[in-house]
Amino acid sequence: MVAITRSLSPALVGERLSAVLLAATLGVGLLFVSGFAPVVALHNAAHDWRHSANFPCH
Amino acid sequence: MTKRLLAAALVAGFLAACVASVLQFALTSPLILAAEKYETAETAGPALAGRALSNPLIVLAHAGHDQAGHDHGGEPQWQPAPGLPRLAFTALATLVSGVGYALLLGAVLVATGRTVTPGEALKFGIGGFLAAGLAPAIGLPPELPGIAAAGLESRQLWWVATALATAAGLYLIAIRRGPAAIGIGLALLVAPHVWGAPHGPEEISAMPPVFAAQFAARSLAIGFAFWAVLGLAFGWAWGAVAGRTGHPVRSGVAA
């Protein structure tokens, strides 16, 4: 995959970096909201999942 | 590539969340409900949780709600209604985490420059299970509500540090290779457990121990299924997304 994109355009190296950074930032944000956020309503909504997924809860 | 990564992560997160949600409803949610009965039976009532206990060191599961409630003048905090709404919010939280983990999985796969296939993504998914599921569970086993535990922030910090150290260790051992990388990798795998997870007071609960044992085993099993589906689905979706949007580009290059 990487070899193909590089052969298409050298600019894709930069695009690869931005894709990785965007995905990582979004991923960490979603995990924080669902697994770690101390907001009580978020905690209560995600309570059973936090226990099942072994996120520290309470 | 950004769109492809985001699309594949959405598909993989959705599929993994579907599987994990069904497994949770069948395996862990009934245990959580059973544990909450013991939890409320042990206290004089939800409003008094954590205060009506003879031992002030016990941090009961829902005592945290009351502490947080002080910020809002002791108003009852919103929580999903029992039954279907609660299951729906559990599934929603699973979906949000699923997409989040899938984005991180995709970011790591792309960053390491691997050819993304279902098999390769499955290997990384199993790595994700080891880093975010199994390794933290060694120090902080999956807990039912109502089990005494150390302070939340210290446990969250140890959890995140352990997941990151394990992921970095696996990367060094499995991808970097080389004697120095393997040595540092092994040290990273072991370090969080030598440091030690924060532990709460050891208390005897009225809840049958078999509940806690079943919950820990089932939680890890669900975690493995979740990560395996996440990896396989990400690899599949990565190819499927390209099949729809990437074909004209490739044929154009070939021509």
How would you describe the overall organization of this protein?
Chain A has helices at 2-8, 11-36, 40-45, 47-52. Chain A is mostly helical. Chain A has a domain at 22-58. The termini of chain A are far apart. In chain A, 41% of the residues are buried. With 255 residues, chain B is mainly α. Chain B has a domain at 2-27 and 88-149 and 200-254. Chain B is 73% helix and 0% strand. Chain B has eight helices and no strands. In chain B, helix 1 (2-42) runs antiparallel to helix 7, helix 3 crosses helix 7 and helix 5 (152-176) packs antiparallel against helix 6 (179-195). The radius of gyration of chain B is 21 Å and the shape is globular.
Unreliable spans of chain B? 44-61, 63-73, 247-255
Question: What is the molecular shape of chain B?
Answer: globular
Mean pLDDT over the residues of chain A: 83
Distance between the terminal alpha carbons of chain B, to the nearest Å? 22 Å
Largest interface here, residues on each chain? A-B, 45 and 69 residues
Helix content of chain B: over 70%
Query: What gyration radius of chain A follows from the Cα positions, in whole Å?
Result: 18 Å
Form type of chain A: elongated
Percentage of residues assigned to helices of chain A:
over 70%
Strand fraction band of chain A?
Answer: under 5%
Low-pLDDT runs of chain A: 5-12
Largest sheet of chain B: none
The number of distinct β-strands of chain B equals: 0
Summed up, the helix count of chain A is 4
What structural category arises from helix and sheet content of chain A? mainly alpha
Tally of helical runs of chain B: 8
Oligomerization: heterodimer
The sequence of SSEs of chain A as H and E is: HHHH
Structural class of chain B: mainly alpha
Rg from Cα of chain B:
21 Å
Transmembrane segments (chain A): 20-42
Keywords (chain A): Membrane, Transmembrane, Transmembrane helix
InterPro entries (chain A): CbtB_put
Protein name (chain A): Cobalt transporter
